[in-house]
């Protein structure tokens, strides 16, 4: 079973499945000739076990130990999870009380004002740990989204940037600076802005991402195309096709296109753009992309490619077509 189908059936995203693979937590039994992950029944059973343990609050590291280390004690683990859950509940109770104090105190409570000022200074600290801690406390103190968005656009540390994006996703007033950042000439600021907007399903964010599809920076184009494709936005289709043509994130692009649900039309676009490309490597990527679509929809295109003048292309098309028939 290919990764797209596993993601659809299990509810685990393809990104998380790749992460599990990189950690050695759930590794597919093999790969197709085109490099696509292929999962066996045993792999799927392992995935169910991983998700079951994660639902109890285990870290991925603990999940791996629980499944692979015979000496790992379920009793000790359960006791620890109970303690950690109780601690989180106590912290949440404290946080809830604090938020209610902020709401009731308003600006007259100067200690709250000072806390917010301190947090805003924290997101600009020279120490990454301080910036990350401040970002994670932003929602606790009711900090507005604008200064956090501005901090994100200049943030170079990946962990801090992740914390800032998490905080911004919960705030309604952060789009302005991010949209402005997407118009910057500085490529780093532009990439950070587009990456942040990629997680926002908002009309203004979507419009900005659509404009980024024609940017000269390939990273920006790929980020925008992938984000819009996951939202099912039509302007992403030709951009994703071009990613397959260029071999730039082509596997992910094919998976996203296959998720549109309009297989016949999307396959037609792929074949029209890539089917007669003079470069056999491009036609091979077309064949590999067709493996992501439903067998009955992809079969005519694959049959045509079984007679391709390049032996690798024709052989791969025959293999995928025969395998889809067996499935």
Automatic annotation (TrEMBL):
Signal peptide from the UniProt entry: none
Keyword set, alphabetical order: DNA-binding
Coiled-coil positions: none
Gene3D superfamilies in alphabetical order: 1.10.1660.10, Leucine-rich Repeat Variant
InterPro entries assigned: ARM-like, ARM-type_fold, DNA-bd_dom_put_sf, MerR-type_HTH_dom, MerR_fam, PBS_lyase_HEAT
Domain HTH merR-type: 1-69
Protein name stated in the entry: MerR family transcriptional regulator
Pfam families (alphabetical): HEAT_2, MerR_1
């Amino acid at each position: 079973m290919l990764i797209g189908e596993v993601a659809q059936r299990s509810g685990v995203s393809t990104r998380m499945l790749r992460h599990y693979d990189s950690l050695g937590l759930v590794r597919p039994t093999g790969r197709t000739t085109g490099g696509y992950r292929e999962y066996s029944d045993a792999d799927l059973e392992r995935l169910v076990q991983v998700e079951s343990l994660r639902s109890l609050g285990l870290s991925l590291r603990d999940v791996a130990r629980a499944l692979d280390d015979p000496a790992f004690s379920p009793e000790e683990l359960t006791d620890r999870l109970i303690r950690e859950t109780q601690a989180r509940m106590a912290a949440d109770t404290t946080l809830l009380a604090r938020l209610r104090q902020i709401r009731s105190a308003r600006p007259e409570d100067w200690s709250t004002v000072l806390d917010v000022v301190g947090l805003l200074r924290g997101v600009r600290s020279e120490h990454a740990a301080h910036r990350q801690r401040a970002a994670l406390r932003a929602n606790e103190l009711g900090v507005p989204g604008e200064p956090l968005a501005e901090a994100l656009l200049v943030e170079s540390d990946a962990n801090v940037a992740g914390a800032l994006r998490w905080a911004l996703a919960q705030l309604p007033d952060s789009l302005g600076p991010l949209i402005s950042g997407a118009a910057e000439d500085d490529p780093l600021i532009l990439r950070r802005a587009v990456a942040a907007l990629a997680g926002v399903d908002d009309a203004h964010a979507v419009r900005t991402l659509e404009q980024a599809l024609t940017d000269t920076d390939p990273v920006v184009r790929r980020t925008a195309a992938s984000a819009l494709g996951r939202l099912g936005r039509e302007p992403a289709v030709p951009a994703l096709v071009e990613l397959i043509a260029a071999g730039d994130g082509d596997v992910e692009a094919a998976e996203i296109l296959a998720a549109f649900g309009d297989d016949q039309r999307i396959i037609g676009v792929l074949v029209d753009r890539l089917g007669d490309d003079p470069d056999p490597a491009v036609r091979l990527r077309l064949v590999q992309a067709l493996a992501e679509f439903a067998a009955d929809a992809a079969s005519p295109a694959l049959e045509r490619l079984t007679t391709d003048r390049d032996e690798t292309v024709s052989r791969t098309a025959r293999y995928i077509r025969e395998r889809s028939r067996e499935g």
